[in-house]
Amino acid sequence: MGKITHLLFDCDNTLVLSEELAFEACAELLNEVLEKHGISDRYTAPKLLVDFVGQNFRGMMVSLRERYNFKMDDSELETYVKREEDQVIAKLEAAAKPCEGVDEVLDKLYASKKYGLAVVSSSALRRVRASIKKVNQEKYFPHDHVFSAATSLEKPTSKPDPAIYLHALKVLGKKAEECVAIEDSKSGTLSAVRAGIPVVGYVGSYEGKEMQAKMEEVLKETGAKVVMTKWDEFEKCMEVIEKA
To answer: Pairing mode, if any, of strands 199-202 and 179-183?
Structure first.
């Protein structure tokens, strides 16, 4: 493999412990939609985490619309997307925390200047910026190197669509083989793999060793080159990829 020059970090549950907080807000709104359409099923935050981890709210709504076959026009969808964004940001600004051990890794990477650092997320840009600001990580990433599948693209989308990674490569002026993506979800891993970018998987945000082992298998099957449970394994993971 050629020289790696840039690291592309997913945000939610990779840099910032945000998914549980976000899915609390998502569940409230999705259940409101289901009730409005006379559908008896209800979602909890843990259930959403299992079914939709790695997808943004717009992607969840589209999936629900297809699953339950109800109608919702684009205007109504955008109203719910904006409400979800506002509610999630309020929760993040109150309680978001960094993933365990990631700040030490970011400090070392930033100081070494060996790699350019960027964030590539499915979530809305306002949410991503609020997350990294709350945990004091925004200093590591150039302002225009924070990318959102929900906001940065002409047509909003969500991982596993590779569009946001392809967009990031174009803006950064990099080839896929010059970058490594760090992802915690199947959809995120698949997004990077489809863009041709090698992936380091991270499962440390999943609760319990059994779930971490299960997700490690999922990420490897999806195409991750190597998977870490703790951030202090990152340097060795990079050695594996750079030697490949």
So the answer is: parallel
Q: Do residues 122 and 164 lie in contact, with contact meaning Cβ atoms separated by under 8 Å? A: yes
Nearest to 121 by CA among 58, 165, 186, 176: 165
The answer to whether the CB of 48 falls within 8 A of the CB of 30 is: yes
Query: How far apart (Å, rounded) are the C-alpha atoms in residues 112 and 39?
Result: 54
Determine the Cα–Cα distance for residues 21 and 5; give it in Å rounded to an integer. Answer: 33
Print pLDDT tens along the chain (244 aa).
679 999 999 999 999 999 888 888 889 999 999 999 999 999 998 888 778 877 888 888 988 999 999 999 989 999 999 999 999 999 999 999 999 999 999 999 999 999 999 999 999 999 999 999 999 999 999 999 999 999 999 999 999 999 999 999 999 999 999 999 999 999 999 999 999 999 999 999 998 999 999 999 999 999 999 999 999 999 999 999 999 8
pTM score over 0.90: no
Helix (H, G, I), strand (E, B) or coil at 229: coil
- Give CA–CA dist 44/52, Å, rounded: 12
